[in-house]
Amino acid sequence: MRRLGFFAAASFLGVVAAAQERRDNRLTERAHQDRDIVYFLQSPETHAFDLYHDYTESRPGVDKYVNVVRKGSRASKPSARMLDTGESLKVETLRGEEITRANVDIGEAVQPDSEAVVVRFPAVAKGRSVRLRISETYTDEKSYRQEGEELVFDRSFGRPHNAVVLPAGWYLTASAIPAIVSLTPEGRIRLDFVNPRPDEIAVLIKARRRPSRGVSHSRFQVPNSREAQWATWNLESGIWNHSD
User: Fold this and answer.
1) What angle do CA 166, 180, 243 make, to 5 degrees?
2) What Rg, from alpha-carbon coordinates, does the chain have?
3) How many Cβ atoms sit within 10 Å of the Cβ of residue 154?
4) How many whole angstroms separate alpha carbon 144 and alpha carbon 153?
5) 119: which of 65, 70, 212, 228 fits an S-S bond (Cβ 3.0–4.6 Å)?
6) Ranges of H-type helices in the chain
């Protein structure tokens, strides 16, 4: 009975220690989160968008980065390089049993339709770090589509910093999540999202194609806390112009 009690106590302590480790890992991972992801939307009828994510790895001994492709998306044209040196890195796309045979941990049970992009690099030395840039093209009919004359991008973001760049010739009409809206040097609309929480934000963006000719300004009445103002939306630049 005494021995049984010892094993029960040991098992309990093991569970507590594992739970503590998982909790600490969550805190550490979030505190050091420095991944930036930028999506470049192609024409909506293609359902495709290019993306890159910059990522810093500082854990000693780590020699690969694994990007698990979310269900419903298909990844193509993966590439990677080390931003510190410009060196191109080996990249491979693994699916189903290929993941298991390569002994790659994707953080979940491997399914027949599981897909992961694996980037390999020299193991990180103690006290050092590497900065990586991984580029891919995703196709996802469900999250990126065209409905009538509107572009719809509907995707959840779990990282602290994400940005979406609209296709050339499109202007923003709606965003369900607050974003910093700017214009790229190429004249494309960019939305930057910041998520300080340890969960996901459900990003929903709608946009319309800029007319090639005809009226280039529309007027909307936008009230503020003091008085109503008139705001002019410039369809050519995608910028609000406010006047008293």
Assistant:
1) 100
2) 23
3) 15
4) 5
5) 65
6) 2-31, 97-101
pLDDT tens per residue across span 92-105:
989 888 988 888 88
Q: Burial, 148: exposed, middle or buried (Cβ in 10 Å; 0-12, 13-18, 19+)?
A: exposed
Flag whether pLDDT at 34 surpasses 80.
no
Question: For residue 35, what are its two tokens?
Answer: 């991944």
Token pair belonging to 218:
């529309």
How far apart CA 50 and CA 40 sit, in angstroms, is: 5
**What is the separation of C-alpha 48 from the centre of its chain, rounded to a whole number of angstroms?**
14
Dmax over CA atoms of the chain, in Å, equals 88
Q: Token pair of 32, please?
A: 């050091």
d(CA 145, CA 152): 5
d(CA 56, CA 38): 16
List domains and CATH numbers for the chain: 36-209 (2.60.40.1730), 211-244 (no CATH)
Lowest pLDDT segment from 17-31, 38-52, 146-160: 17-31
Per-residue pLDDT of 110-124, as tens digits, reads 888 888 899 999 999
151-to-1, 89, 148, 167 alpha-carbon distances in Å:
68, 34, 8, 10
Question: If 0-12 CB within 10 Å is exposed, 13-18 middle and 19+ buried, where does residue 210 land?
Answer: middle
Q: Is 97 exposed, middle or buried (0-12, 13-18, 19+ CB in 10 A)?
A: exposed
**pTM, entire model:** 0.70
Half-sphere exposure of 21 (CA within 13 A, CB side): 6
Q: Please state, in angstroms and as integers, the Cα–Cα distance from residue 180 to each residue in 65, 89, 162, following that order.
A: 29, 33, 11
